[in-house]
Design brief:
By secondary structure, the protein is α/β, with parallel strands linked by helices. The chain has helices at about 5-20, 30-35, 40-45, 50-55, 60-70, 75-100, 105-115, 115-145, 160-175, 175-185, 185-205, 210-225, 230-245, 255, 265-295, 305-315, 320-355, 370-395, 405-435, 440-510, 540-550, 575-600, 615-625, 645-650, 655-665, and strands spanning about 530-535, 560-565, 600-610, 630-640, 670-675. α8 crosses α20 (about 440-510).
Length: about 675
């Protein structure tokens, strides 16, 4: 019998857990999809904040190039125009991608379906690393922006603050995506209001001097044309344009986040994409103009935006307070932007897990219908990256050269973004050619995809060249390592699948000796009963069932088959998908029941639906035990010749977990081994 004290302790633990992480959701609630989905405005906040917040560091990195390489600040005017055009090109191509893949998947899906599995693996791995960097860069930039206005002696707490913010985001994302987005709405609105003031006043204050500024641009351009030449000017411009590529990060997030959007998903996603594109183009473009017009110069310990705010509002009453609120809202929005990584990263992991590139457990949903495993991995990985960047910055900094951790992270960041962008553009171009007979206007779309590919690929090459020795090599190494691990995992799953097919060929297609007449007697609760847990009608399950009949001959009169319709990210897409899942599980159980009856047993089945197989199956088995007192539970488990930690990670320990739960409650539970040679 279970220990009552332990039971009470577990109950208290569960109450505390539910208080922190939220109560389990009812998967059978017909309105569940409506309750957890995001309208376009909330999607813009949850997914678009990443793109909008990139204006906090992308334009700054580009502008620093212009003033570092000489007095080329006037090129910021042209950067503003080029940035807006690039944003709209990438946004347009991703809107077309959304139409093509309405269930989500983004760059990973289009690369996998149009360019092949290898391209999909590279795109997915790059996206994963990119989303980890999204969190790390956003949190680091948030800390830098907020601490820009704090005394230098408090800067020692910046690293601790950043780790605390990651922990906060992990907790609210485990509670639920919608809940996390709603909690961050005030921050997003504060950013919009304060930056409308910053940028609006920045332009208005310079309106009387517009003629002078235009003359300055013309004079500077003519001077540089005669000294460095058009090629020199173009080289500096393109270098700044490429190194400011962080501005475009986050645009792809909407295509990955489609599953969390309100129906009609495609319409909601395209509206979200429009909000994101317009807001990013305006904010980033006007920032470039303000940097030049107001002659912003780098100040140690401050971001360019902080310097801009100080210069603009220094003459206002409480101007320092206004500047602080503006930059605080910027730092706070970067915290919201990290949310994109927690939404998109686990989604990419789930898609890759479904395709056997990642451990299957990353496709699982928690009781809150969130991808808890993915959220934890993203948060931990981001914390490690921030720690590495902080350590590297301390090692590289000298008295005359202060290296900022955010600069190291941004160097790592934009490479993978444009690797994914390039593959997505190329994949969509190929799809346009393949579907040219089905869709009108394919030639126009193809032209835009090609332009998008050329722009993104150019930025990718320049970024790798410029940033390789400065830290870009680390991004390529990490991404290559992820690709290698995913390939190794996929190879293992392929071997196991091949071995499992042998069971299907031998057992499902062979002639099993059956009784002349099936047993149509109802199950008798007074008889010895074997309850067998199964997962689909396959050779593995049939082998386990035959092992029971062979090892316990004539002992059991009843056979009850039990299965759980597991809701994971692959099936949690809509009511129709859930109904289809239940139908397929019921059909498999009926096949098992019919097989058992043909072998002379009285047989029946029980099923339930849930996200946690162990919890759902254990509760179902306990209810069966009340109905059939003389019961023994059976389940099968794959056994490898050399069982390692690697196998435990790739194959869930469901059988052992259920056995522990049922044995603790006093029920006989037997695990039958199924040997897999591979």
């Amino acid at each position: 019998m279970p220990n009552n004290d332990n039971g009470k302790e577990y109950s208290r633990f569960r109450k505390v857990r539910d208080k922190v992480l939220g109560n389990p959701r009812d998967i059978r609630d017909p309105t569940i999809f409506h309750k957890i989905s995001l309208i376009a405005l909330l999607s813009w906040i949850g997914l678009g904040a990443d793109g909008l917040s990139s204006s906090s560091y992308g334009p700054e990195e580009a502008y620093r190039v212009l003033i570092k390489d000489g007095n080329f600040a006037y090129l910021a005017i042209f950067l503003a125009l080029a940035t807006a055009i690039t944003v709209f090109i990438i946004s347009f191509t991703y809107s077309k991608l959304i139409e093509q893949f309405p269930h989500g998947g983004g760059g990973y899906m289009v690369a996998s379906r149009s360019l092949g599995k290898t391209a999909g693996l590279v795109s997915g791995s790059a996206l994963l690393v990119d989303y980890v960097l999204t969190i790390a860069v956003s949190i680091a930039a948030s800390g830098e922006a907020i601490f820009s206005f704090l005394p230098n002696e408090l800067h020692i707490y910046k690293y601790s603050f950043e780790l605390l913010m990651i922990l906060f985001l992990i907790l609210i994302n485990i509670r639920g995506i919608k809940e996390s987005v709603i909690a961050l709405i005030p921050i997003f609105l504060l950013f919009l209001v304060t930056h409308a003031l910053l940028l609006g006043y920045g332009l208005l204050s310079q309106a009387p001097h517009i003629t002078t500024q235009i003359n300055t641009v013309n004079t500077s351009f003519q001077h540089d044309l005669s000294t460095v030449g058009m090629l020199g000017i173009l080289a500096i411009f393109l270098r700044a344009f490429s190194l400011g590529a962080g501005t475009y990060t986050g645009i792809e997030a909407v295509s990955n986040g489609l599953p969390v959007m309100r129906e009609p998903k495609v319409k909601t996603a395209k509206k979200t994409m429009m909000y994101m594109a317009i807001s990013l183009a305006v904010v980033a473009g006007v920032l470039y103009i303000c940097y030049f017009f107001i002659d912003v110069k780098p100040v140690v310990g401050q971001t360019l935006n902080a310097t801009l705010a100080n210069k603009l509002f220094s003459g206002w009453p409480y101007g320092d307070v206004i500047a602080f609120v503006i930059i605080f809202s910027e730092g706070a929005l970067l915290l919201v932007a990290a949310q994109t990584g927690f939404i998109g990263g686990p989604r990419v992991m789930a898609n890759m897990a479904i395709d056997s590139w990642f451990p299957k457990k990353f496709a699982a949903l928690s009781e809150r219908l969130t991808m808890r495993n993915g959220v934890l991995v993203m948060g931990i990985a981001a914390a490690i990256l921030i720690s590495v960047a902080e350590l590297s910055a301390n090692m590289l900094s000298t008295d005359g050269n202060i290296v900022r951790p955010i600069a190291i992270l941004v160097i790592m960041y934009s490479i993978n973004v444009f690797l994914t962008f390039s593959l997505a553009q190329l994949g969509m171009a190929k799809l346009s050619i393949n579907n040219r007979k089905k869709k009108k206007g394919w030639m126009r779309n193809l032209f835009i995809f090609i332009i998008g590919f050329l722009v993104c690929f150019f930025i990718l090459i320049v970024t790798i060249y410029e940033k390789f020795e400065a830290g870009g090599w680390l991004t390529l190494f990490i991404t290559s390592f992820v690709v290698f691990i995913c390939y190794f995992i996929h190879k293992h799953y392929a071997k196991v699948q091949k071995a499992m097919k042998k069971f299907d060929e031998v057992l499902l297609l062979s002639n099993i000796h059956l009784a002349d007449q099936p047993n149509r007697e109802p199950v008798n609760p007074k008889n010895q009963t074997a309850v067998m847990l199964v997962n689909g009608y396959n050779g593995f399950g049939v082998n386990t069932f035959l092992s029971i009949t062979r090892n316990f001959p004539k002992l059991y009169k009843n056979i009850i088959f039990v299965s759980v319709a597991e809701i994971d990210s692959g099936t949690f897409k809509g009511v129709e998908e859930l109904e289809s899942l239940e139908h397929s599980v019921r059909a498999a159980l009926e096949k098992y029941t019919e097989l058992a009856r043909k072998l002379g047993f009285a047989a029946d089945y029980r099923m339930d639906i849930g996200t946690d197989v162990v919890e759902t199956a254990s509760n179902l088995c306990e209810s069966i035990a009340e109905e059939f007192p003389k019961v023994t539970f059976f389940t099968g488990k794959l056994v490898f010749r050399h069982d390692t930690l690697f196998h435990k990670v790739l194959h869930n320990e469901t059988a052992l977990a259920i056995q522990r739960r049922l044995q603790w409650n006093g029920f006989m539970t037997v695990i039958l081994p199924v040997r897999v040679d591979h």
